[in-house]
Specification:
- By secondary structure, the protein is an alpha+beta fold.
- It folds into 2 domains: 2-213, Beta Polymerase, domain 2 (2-Layer Sandwich); 216-275, Up-down Bundle (Methane Monooxygenase Hydroxylase, Chain G, domain 1).
- Helices cover 66% and strands 10% of the residues.
- Strands 1-2-3-4 form a 4-stranded antiparallel beta sheet, sandwiched between helices.
- β1 and β2 (34-43) form a beta hairpin.
- The longest helix has 66 residues, at 173-238.
């Protein structure tokens, strides 16, 4: 990096910014260049792991220098356009090439948010059909991932907004229009992430409401069961006393009569509850 700085006469502050991997996305203008940084997100197709790395771009009059934390082919579409002699990117300056690179980064934001959003929508269908305990863990996981995306995308919006308003000899007037397009795209990514965060909050409420409803049904069943057995227990308690004189005990059919009364009480209460639509 130091050799690159000497070759292109870059300010030491530019190199220091390139080396600072934890710095917030920003754009700065120096005497002979513009330096900007942005968080670049990539998703592994196999593990769905989302990695983040800092992308630094240095714009000079005739050269664009990009710095990545690790090797990757995320900018292969831009290289392909150059190899295919696409007129706009071949004739444009380093400012337009910067737009092309940032466009890839922002499109990746939209793609990753969209992929995660599809999983969230699928989860909503599962939640309505069969609310399992594992669903709550998935909701919290997706919520953390969406917050992570939002945390990295929002600062990029501020950087692109500053870049679209920057008055510099290194940025052509026509390129400002393209930077504003980028701003619309990144707003789309932020709005989508916010929408999915709200969906996750709604899903969380649906889960708790469904569980509460099921718990209420169980409690209602147990309450009705207990209420029915209160008079039955009362009858059984009376005839289970140890007094010597209980007239009904001497009657031949008293046992069957007691069963009949208890069944009538139980059936009568069930019909009453049914009529009141408590069952």
């Amino acid at each position: 990096i130091e050799d690159i700085g000497q070759r292109f006469a870059l300010d030491k502050l530019v190199l220091a910014e390139v080396m600072d991997l934890q710095a917030r996305p920003k754009v700065q203008e120096f005497n002979n260049c513009i330096q900007l940084s942005i968080k670049m997100l990539q998703q592994d197709d196999h593990s769905d792991y989302i990695s983040v790395e800092k992308l630094n771009i240095v714009i000079t009059e005739s050269v664009l220098i990009s710095f990545q934390e690790k090797k990757g082919d995320v900018f292969e579409p831009v290289r392909e356009r150059i190899r295919n002699q696409k007129k706009r990117i071949r004739s444009g300056g380093t400012d337009y090439l910067t737009f092309a690179l940032l466009d890839i980064v922002v499109d990746n934001y939209i793609y990753i948010v969209g992929v995660l959003g599809e999983k969230i929508e699928t989860l909503e269908e599962t939640l309505l059909q069969e609310p399992r305990k594992s669903v709550i863990d998935e909701i919290y996981t997706y919520k953390r991932e969406m917050n992570f995306l939002r945390k990295n995308i929002t600062p990029a919006k501020e950087m692109i907004l500053t870049l679209s308003k920057m008055e510099s000899e290194l940025i052509d007037e026509t390129t400002h229009f393209h930077f504003k397009e980028l701003l619309d795209n990144i707003n789309q990514a932020i709005d989508s992430s916010e929408t999915y965060r709200e969906i996750l909050s709604d899903q969380l409420n649906i889960y708790h409401t469904t569980i509460s409803s099921k718990l209420n049904d169980v409690m209602k069943f147990l309450t009705i069961f207990s209420v029915i057995f209160i008079p039955l227990t009362f009858i059984a308690g009376i005839y289970g006393t140890n007094f010597d004189v209980v007239p009904e005990l001497k009657y031949e059919y008293s046992y069957f009569i007691m069963w009949g009364v208890m069944l009538l009480v139980a059936i009568g209460m069930l019909l009453y509850f049914r009529r009141k639509k408590w069952l």
